[in-house]
């Protein structure tokens, strides 16, 4: 990457790594003061590091901080954070970017069909009604991409937002590779949502096809609903301990994926033995978890705000291990379907598995025997 010209000052890999991590954390958290944030950040880093500092970093090539390699993650300043990306000061309700009709790009049947297919899994579009969805489809236009094309450059003003139909795209922050999209996903939403410069550079690795939407249209149709939804789930998602394993950026994507559901007192939410289609986070109220035992149901647990359930069957690929009922009034839940679960909760898998081990020891305590809730066969 560097040192072709020999007499340059060598920048130690460790320094690069630390500064990169810090920069990313800073960009994502958007705190109001750099110095205060840096003091907190590095104090926390120091407190959390293992007693022997690792001074050497032998693999000195490219640094990857992909979310999947979660131990390279910067400490997230949960407790002390002043402002999250969610809590951006910008007020979309006061937005007056609206200057008339939305652009319409005519499409052939084939194009329209491909576009519909590409946007199927776009979580950001989940909060749109049918009419808004049609406006979005009309307003998107095709962009062909060649290998090595820069689609977005870090620091630029945001122009378009992109949905991927095909192609591989690499994301870099300060020349460090942090993410890769392969034939699916979207990017370029951050600068448009939060009115800030591009947080990263996106470069095509292969040829490909993108569907673009201009800033104006994005803001007119998507901004309010997407922003509202992210805001609505911010508190919930920050209150679920397990989700601290996610980066802010990943938590925001999770907010896009959630669907609110309400249940009346006594209503069954999950039935033991059923196939599983998703999991739930509790926004408000309490639920009772009950297991069949000798023709009766025995309550094994009660869960409240900030807790989750329904993950077990998704992790083990088995039927529901218990039934779950709404108790004590209206229960408000945020539902995450199994596809989004698999896509978004990878970094939480270890924590979930640890909690599942806990179920097993409780099971022995309550029923005196191991009821086989996790064996895969
Ligand atoms: P943008 O408008 O800022 C660059 O332009 C885009 O890269 C950005 O929107 C996102 O769509 C996309 N952090 C920030 N932006 C990311 C990230 C990311 N991944 C993709 N983009 N990550 C967090 C790094 C700490 C990667 C998370 C896995
Ligand atoms: P699921 O997808 O199997 C039922 O659907 C949910 O109830 C399950 O995921 C868990 O999220 C939740 N054992 C099994 N499932 C439990 C338990 C549990 N508690 C909550 N759930 N135990 C209770 C431990 C306090 C152990 C059994 C006695």
From TrEMBL:
<keyword id="KW-0114">cAMP</keyword>
<dbReference type="GO" id="GO:0005952">
    <property type="term" value="C:cAMP-dependent protein kinase complex"/>
</dbReference>
<feature type="domain" description="Cyclic nucleotide-binding">
    <location>
        <begin position="242"/>
        <end position="362"/>
    </location>
</feature>
<dbReference type="InterPro" id="IPR018490">
    <property type="entry name" value="cNMP-bd_dom_sf"/>
</dbReference>
<dbReference type="GO" id="GO:0004862">
    <property type="term" value="F:cAMP-dependent protein kinase inhibitor activity"/>
</dbReference>
<dbReference type="GO" id="GO:0030552">
    <property type="term" value="F:cAMP binding"/>
</dbReference>
<protein>
    <recommendedName>
        <fullName>cAMP-dependent protein kinase type II regulatory subunit</fullName>
    </recommendedName>
</protein>
<feature type="domain" description="Cyclic nucleotide-binding">
    <location>
        <begin position="124"/>
        <end position="239"/>
    </location>
</feature>
<keyword id="KW-0116">cAMP-binding</keyword>
<feature type="binding site">
    <location>
        <position position="311"/>
    </location>
    <ligand>
        <name>3',5'-cyclic AMP 2</name>
    </ligand>
</feature>
<keyword id="KW-0547">Nucleotide-binding</keyword>
<dbReference type="InterPro" id="IPR012198">
    <property type="entry name" value="cAMP_dep_PK_reg_su"/>
</dbReference>
<dbReference type="Pfam" id="PF00027">
    <property type="entry name" value="cNMP_binding"/>
</dbReference>
<dbReference type="InterPro" id="IPR050503">
    <property type="entry name" value="cAMP-dep_PK_reg_su-like"/>
</dbReference>
<comment type="similarity">
    <text>Belongs to the cAMP-dependent kinase regulatory chain family.</text>
</comment>
<dbReference type="InterPro" id="IPR014710">
    <property type="entry name" value="RmlC-like_jellyroll"/>
</dbReference>
<feature type="binding site">
    <location>
        <position position="189"/>
    </location>
    <ligand>
        <name>3',5'-cyclic AMP 1</name>
    </ligand>
</feature>
<feature type="binding site">
    <location>
        <position position="320"/>
    </location>
    <ligand>
        <name>3',5'-cyclic AMP 2</name>
    </ligand>
</feature>
<feature type="binding site">
    <location>
        <position position="198"/>
    </location>
    <ligand>
        <name>3',5'-cyclic AMP 1</name>
    </ligand>
</feature>
<feature type="region of interest" description="Disordered">
    <location>
        <begin position="49"/>
        <end position="78"/>
    </location>
</feature>
<dbReference type="GO" id="GO:0005829">
    <property type="term" value="C:cytosol"/>
</dbReference>
<dbReference type="InterPro" id="IPR000595">
    <property type="entry name" value="cNMP-bd_dom"/>
</dbReference>
<keyword id="KW-0677">Repeat</keyword>
<keyword id="KW-0597">Phosphoprotein</keyword>
<dbReference type="GO" id="GO:0034236">
    <property type="term" value="F:protein kinase A catalytic subunit binding"/>
</dbReference>
<feature type="compositionally biased region" description="Polar residues">
    <location>
        <begin position="52"/>
        <end position="69"/>
    </location>
</feature>
<dbReference type="InterPro" id="IPR018488">
    <property type="entry name" value="cNMP-bd_CS"/>
</dbReference>
